[in-house]
Every structure is written in structure tokens, then in C-alpha cells.
Amino acid sequence: MQTLTLGPSGTYSHRAAQSVSEDIEFTESVTEIVQAVANGAYDRGVIPIENSIEGSVTESLDALAEYDIAVVREIITPIRHALLARGESFETVASHAQALAQCRGYLEEQYPDVELEAVASTARGVERAREDDSVAAIAHPDNAGDLETLATDIQDKTSNATRFLAIAGADERSPAGGKTSIVIYPNSDYPGLLLELLKPFAERDINLSRLESRPSGERLGDYVFHVDFQAGLYEDRTQAALEEIETLAENGWVRRLGSYDTEHVVS
Ligand SMILES: O=C(O)C(=O)C[C@]1(C(=O)O)C=C[C@@H](O)C=C1
């Protein structure tokens, strides 16, 4: 299965994608991954969606609201960062913005004067450190190669974990699975709207595992809601809840991304 994920080789996305396929290619944009799967250029994509310290990967959420794809699996993996460099004297730390944020406390305490450089991925940061001895990288320790591992486990919490989604073409959307993701764009605004959108789940005892709002981009204060819940699309209660939500969102749209199961990858 041809799979596209965030590169270059050695990213955490790459590690998660290895549980999906052996045939992996790379790009340095999450939006491009979703786009390439939506237009059929790849069978699968693996994208980071949420981190336990830093929260949403907003580019991923926005791409899921924009392109018609299916979510077919959720992959949760612990994230343990190392500090890698050609030597001990460096002036800049390069990594993915999420990784820099996950190590904020460590960096402020140990290296208060370094500059932080956000790059497309952790593995791209490693390439920067390889090219330039004034740059250190934050990445998975397996990326060290000829670099020195100056510190390990530098994330601010040992429980640091990221949730990835495996995505496929819309024709592979499945009703089966213990979890479902949907995106709601009500395109209206009145007191109690969000309460009304959530009631159909509460009334059927469907547990929400996540609710995130993102700007619709249409006008200030107008939102798209990303909702994950612990039930499958195959269940009657899910279908009934979604029918009610579709009626409430008749000025906008509801996208059913699909049902899926969770895999925990420890690597
Ligand atoms: O840069 C990487 O290695 C990625 O796979 C991206 C990413 C992210 O976007 O959250 C994935 C896991 C970690 O949380 C840090 C970075």
C-alpha cells in the first residue's frame, strides 16, 4: 500500500506510518498528504493530529475539513525526544514547532539563550544540525547517526504522546470501529447552538472523546467543529444522532470521516 507521510525519513510520523505499510514516501506538508490521498495519488496517508502536551496540529484539522477522505485508523505513540548536535556549543535548536513546544520547559531551563527555529519536521531539524554545527535538533534518538546525543527524554512530561490518523480515499470509509470522527459546519450562530449539536450524543449515551473548534475562514467568530466519539457509524444510535445533527446544520454541512479502531505503537 503506497503511503505518504511527513518527512524526511526518521520523523515520528514515519515511525507511526510503519505500522500501516512498508511502502512509504515523504513530503514536508501535512496538507499535501491529505490532498494526495484525496486525489488518489496514494492509498494511505499518515498525519499527526493531536499531542498530549501541545494539543492540536491545526494544519491537519483544517485539511480534514477541506478534503474528502476517510479516516481508517488511529495510531497513538509515546513521544520521547533527544537533543542531537555535532557538539556541545550550539546557538540554535531546530525542530518541528510541536516538538519545540513539548520541550519548552527543558529548553528554558538548560539553554535559556538559544534561538528556536521551527522547521517542517523533527527529521528536517536533524538535517539542519548535520549541516551546521551551530544548530542542535530535537528528534527521536534513532536519528543520531554521526551526531552526538546530548540529552534524552527532554520532553516536559514523560507521558508525552501523539495521536496520528491513517487516512484513505473516501471510497474506503468504514462504518465499523469503536470510534468515529466527524466535522460539523453549522454556518449559523445563535444562543445554544453548540448545546443543541451535542445533545443528540448525550441523549444516546455516546461518549465524546474530543471536541475542537477551528475558524471556518469565512468570517470572524464562525467555526467548524471537529468531533470524535466512542461509537461506530454502524450503530443505530450513531445514525440517529447524526440525522439530528444534519438537520441542525442544514445551512452548512456535516462530514462523516469514518469509523476506526485504535492502535498503540511503542517504538
Ligand atoms: O516532525 C515530526 O517528526 C512529526 O512527525 C510531526 C510531529 C507533530 O506534528 O506533532 C509528530 C509527533 C511529535 O509530536 C512532533 C512532531
Automatic annotation (TrEMBL):
Domain ACT: 182-259
Record protein name field: Prephenate dehydratase
Membrane listed as a keyword: no
GO molecular function, a single term: prephenate dehydratase activity
Pfam families: ACT (PF01842), PDT (PF00800)
GO biological process: L-phenylalanine biosynthetic process
Lineage: Archaea, Methanobacteriati, Methanobacteriota, Stenosarchaea group, Halobacteria
Keyword set, alphabetical order: Amino-acid biosynthesis, Aromatic amino acid biosynthesis, Lyase, Phenylalanine biosynthesis
Taxonomic superkingdom: Archaea
GO cellular component assignments: cytoplasm
UniProt cross-references to NCBIfam families, sorted A to Z: PRK11898.1
Gene3D superfamilies: 3.30.70.260, Periplasmic binding protein-like II
PANTHER family referenced in this protein's UniProt entry, alphabetically: PREPHENATE DEHYDRATASE P PROTEIN, PREPHENATE DEHYDRATASE-RELATED
Domain Prephenate dehydratase: 2-169
Pathway: Amino-acid biosynthesis
